[in-house]
From TrEMBL:
Subcellular location: Cell outer membrane
Protein name: Porin
Keyword Membrane: yes
Family: Belongs to the alphaproteobacteria porin family.
GO cellular component: cell outer membrane; pore complex
Any single biological process term in GO: monoatomic ion transport
Domain commentary: Consists of 16-stranded beta-barrel sheets, with large surface-exposed loops, that form a transmembrane pore at the center of each barrel. The pore is partially ocluded by a peptide loop that folds into the pore lumen.
Main location: membrane
Signal peptide coordinates: 1-23
Function: Forms passive diffusion pores that allow small molecular weight hydrophilic materials across the outer membrane.
Gene source species: Bradyrhizobium rifense
Alphabetical keyword list: Cell outer membrane, Ion transport, Membrane, Porin, Signal, Transmembrane, Transmembrane beta strand, Transport
Length: 514
């Protein structure tokens, strides 16, 4: 027993000695753990970044889309990016799909000069492949796409970086949902680089000025047609480059795809100058926007000695109106806008609208029918000046909330584009080579979209949408043309009736916001 007791005491003494030595090595006081704290200064979802006075908020969404029918009216493979979108034959995709993840990061810091804010919005998408069966070597497999919609700093009323244009209505191109191709106003939902200042006059009244770089927007510039040499000796390929050839068919093929010349912009000189005044109060919103745009062309030919037309200024004006608290129900809203442009077509047929496209359908008098359209800010020919293109447009939508979980909407947009007398004559001189006797050349056109949708929100931040839209190209050509073959669309050389075209599209969407 004595032996056991001695062993226990000796072991305890040894442990105490070792423990004392370890304790002597420890700091006198452990460092306090820094916990993430809620930041209530800027609304829900903000937290202080540990060890700083900067608040941060993470958000975004995950979306799954399916587009059924139509010619890609929701911006997947529309007629400008896919010859098959408007071909309406076995090469045309009958459906498109998209998986998209959006992540945004918002940081804010209170300073003696006011709040310093940074905001970034990044999107990652996977879309249906654009397959051209007649040109298998050009098939591009589906690949992930990365987009940066917003990346800006705000300080003391200034906004510096990339975000939507101050010319836009707050709902962009979607007055009550709908496809990307609704005309009747501007849309920079994918962002545009800019330097802007906003003055707050109180009671919801603000005024803004901005310098914006349209070339940084998605398809930001409309066409500036140079028809010099656009005859049997030259043509425009799908990338907008001049292709020299002895075949007049190539120029004709480009023409009936809506390419009326070479898109001939010179280098950047002056950014677009934008002004806006807005009243945003409990009853709704009213906004007036104006834009000035420098049309800076390249050369008449391919070298400096050929000369060039002088620059010309285009402009646009837009009015937007949103009415809330209407008698039909809580949360219901009506959004309306109207726009007029002269040499600034993108502010009507906005950045996601195809700037050259064609659509085929059936005919009782010819092989098939065709409708095509080319949009532009202006047109010029050898030795001439820029003849600007004029447009006007309207769009609107009404959203009704049946219950907190169900909402429906109707929307529509309609716009007209008209070429000037000189520009029209230059385009029609080339059109004459393919026109059937008795046909009329007029590159002007109208385009309209109407649609309905229903959104079911079973739980907060989870929505399922079904959206049905009808689009119509009201083209002003009449008669028929003898068109050359278009290999990428599998269309043979034949007589085609010039005819208005229609498209019906259904979008199904599941989206989870966070």
């Amino acid at each position: 027993m004595k032996m056991v007791k001695s062993l226990l005491l000796g072991t305890a003494a040894g442990l105490i000695a070792v423990g004392g030595a370890q304790a002597a090595d420890l700091p006198l006081k452990a460092k306090a753990v820094e916990y993430v704290k809620v930041c209530s200064l800027y609304g829900a979802g903000f937290y202080y970044m540990p060890g700083t006075d900067t608040c941060i908020k993470l958000g975004g969404y995950l979306r799954a889309d399916a587009i059924l029918g139509g010619a890609g009216d929701y911006g997947f493979n529309n007629s400008v990016s896919s010859a098959n979108g408007g071909s309406n034959n076995r090469l045309t995709n009958y459906y498109y799909s998209r998986a998209r993840f959006d992540l945004n990061i918002d940081t804010r810091t209170a300073t003696e000069y006011g709040v310093v804010r940074t905001y970034a919005d990044m999107v990652f998408s996977y879309d249906t492949s654009n397959v051209t069966g007649s040109s298998p070597s050009t098939i591009s497999p589906s690949a992930p796409a990365l987009g940066l919609y917003h990346a800006f700093i705000q300080f003391a009323g200034f906004t510096m970086g990339r975000t939507v244009s101050i010319f836009d209505a707050p709902w962009q191109s979607y007055p009550a949902g709908g496809p990307d191709t609704i005309p009747g106003g501007s849309n920079h939902v994918n962002g545009v680089n800019q330097f802007a200042y906003t003055a707050d006059f109180g009671q919801g009244i603000t005024g803004s000025l901005a310098l914006e770089e349209e070339t940084t927007a998605s398809n930001g510039q409309s066409n500036l047609w140079n028809v010099t040499g656009f005859t049997a000796s030259s043509a425009v390929n799908g990338a907008g480059a001049i292709v020299t050839t002895s075949a007049a068919a190539n120029a004709a093929a480009a023409l009936i795809q809506g390419n009326y010349g070479v898109n001939d912009w010179g280098g950047t000189r002056v950014p677009d100058i934008i002004g806006q005044v807005r009243v945003d109060q409990a009853w709704g919103l009213a906004q007036v926007s104006v834009a000035a745009k420098d049309l800076h062309p390249g050369y008449y030919g391919t070298t400096e000695p050929t000369g060039h037309p002088s620059d010309k200024w285009g402009w646009a004006v837009q009015g937007s109106l949103s009415i809330k608290n209407i008698p039909t129900g809580a949360g219901d809203v009506v959004n309306l806008q109207a726009v007029y442009t002269d040499g600034a077509t993108r502010y009507n047929f906005q950045s996601l609208f195809p700037q050259s496209f064609f659509m085929f359908s059936g005919s009782s008098t010819a092989y098939q029918s065709i409708g095509f359209a080319g949009l532009a800010d202006g047109v010029f020919g050898a030795g001439g000046s820029i003849d600007t293109v004029k447009t006007w447009g309207i769009r609107g939508g009404y959203t009704h909330n049946w219950t907190p979980n169900w909402a429906s909407a109707v929307y529509g947009g309609y716009a007209q584009l008209k070429y000037g007398t000189t520009g029209k004559a230059l385009i029609c001189a080339n059109f004459a080579s393919i026109a059937v006797a008795g046909s009329t050349c007029n590159p002007d056109f109208n385009f309209g979209v109407v649609g309905v949708n229903t959104v079911w929100t079973p739980v907060k931040n989870l929505a399922f949408t079904a959206d049905l839209s009808w689009s119509r190209l009201d083209q002003k050509y009449s008669g028929a043309i003898t068109a050359p073959a278009i290999s990428t669309a599998a269309k043979p050389g034949a007589v085609y009736e010039l005819k208005d075209q229609n498209s019906v599209t259904m979008m199904l969407r599941a989206q989870r916001n966070f």
